[in-house]
Amino acid sequence: MKLRKILRPILWSAFLFLSFLALSAALWYMRKYGDTGFMSILSTFLSPWNGCANSLKESFICYALLPTIGICGAVTLFLLNRKYGKLRIKGKQIYPFSQKWSNRLFLLLSVASLVTAACLVHFPRYVYDSFFTHSRIYEEEYRAPADVEITFPEKKRNLIYIYLESMESSFLSKELGGGCEENLIPELYELARENVNFSHNDGVGGFPRTTHATWTSAAMVSQTAGVPLTIDIAGIDLTEFKGYLPGATTLQDILREEGYYQTLMVGSDASFGGRREYYEQHGADHVYDLYTAREDGLIPSDYMVWWGFEDAKLFAYAKEELKKISAGEQPFAFTLLTVDTHHIDGYSCEYCPSHHKEQYENVLSCSSRQVLEFVRWLQEQEFYDNTTVIISGDHPSMDQQYFARNVDSDYTRHSYNCILNSAVTTTNTKNRDFTPMDMFPTTLAAMGCSIEGERLGLGTNLFSDLPTLSEEMGVETLNRELSKRSDYYNNELIEDET
Fold this sequence. Notes:
By secondary structure, this protein is of the alpha/beta class. The chain folds into two domains: 2-132, no CATH class; 144-494, Alkaline Phosphatase, subunit A. Helix content is 44%, strand content 11%. It has helices at 2-33, 38-46, 54-80, 99-120, 123-132, 137-141, 186-194, 216-225, 251-257, 275-281, 290-295, 311-326, 359-379, 400-406, 439-446, 469-473, 475-483, 487-494, and strands at 87-89, 92-94, 150-151, 158-164, 206-208, 261-266, 286-288, 332-337, 387-393, 414-420, 450-451, 455-456, 459-460. The strands form four sheets. It has a seven-stranded mixed β-sheet, sandwiched between helices. A two-stranded antiparallel ribbon has the order 1-2. Strands 3-11 form a two-stranded antiparallel sheet. Helix 10 links the parallel strand 6 and strand 7. The chain is globular. The N and C termini lie far apart (56 Å).
């Protein structure tokens, strides 16, 4: 009995703490990231956390963990200490926070915190979609790449795919169709104007927010597999991360079968978010990241800024490795992911200007210049004439507070894209409705491949005359279907076929 009296307040306090922490974490996440959907949170927590930026960890501790400890401690002391629960009513001292009422208040506060946290991150909608809705979009529209005839040109073209962290056409000026007062990315704007840019408007634009493609790992999956990154909550194995979509045939799988040498280079720990596992699982021969940069002498063995090392060093690293890779006999596919423009406020390196009022704007402008310099270097290399270059924003920026301060709330944001040295052309690039999934077949087409039926996964070759699924269904309807449960997705793509 005595043990129960000791354990009961400890258990109630622990429950209250976890509930308050869930609420604080949800509030912190929504303020920092915005509404990216519950799937992004689930994916982040289930995949490897190695390499998360120290600034985010510190932010979580300061704005979520420490306030939870303080508030929970104060509430617990008040409810358990009867000295502070005395009230005098009609001359009598009563204890409204008796053990029974204290337990009830503990339960009420805990449940209220959990429910609020769940609603903030749209957990009820996720549960409803996962268990009570069902989509047949995959049965009706999905084109399994393994069953589609893809013909490569006699001389296979190389591929350089550059993911620009959080890069949007929204960073153009309002006069150019963007959402900002001035053009923050003039070099990227000119590259898009001079080359192929698929746009939602008459000018330079891109693709809108797409369900389950709003964070980096999901964006990479979407653009290389033609499907969103969805996790089957009923089939989660919390003891082991096995990578993403082992049953799917991706761009990397196709290129591997065609004899390509494939690499992924990131300026952080490649294991974060499951990126290394996804690329290695589907055909990457080598992955470069923070640790290989240290081993290769690019940076000191203890070097660590931002998420790993800045883009200026990343591009220098890419140049050196591309020289070696291009000297080989195999066609190559080199994937690069920048990092400086990650939220919050980006990383201001030594080359960043101070022309704009906010750090994030200066970082964006710096990134734009560095990308152009890297492209100009590529164009001077012998391998460039036979190389297709894809430049694409990975997902909408998560710097929620920047947009709240600087962009009209009714402005619809779109991610950036640009294709250089494409083997094919089209006049149908403007006023298009498309998604990152369409980049999968479009990339192969830009490399000179012919695709039977012009579709792979849920993506449509944008160089073809075939309308995309979002043009046929509407973006909102497509996004709604992608959020629903799919037995085909869970059984055929998540499950390993081997």
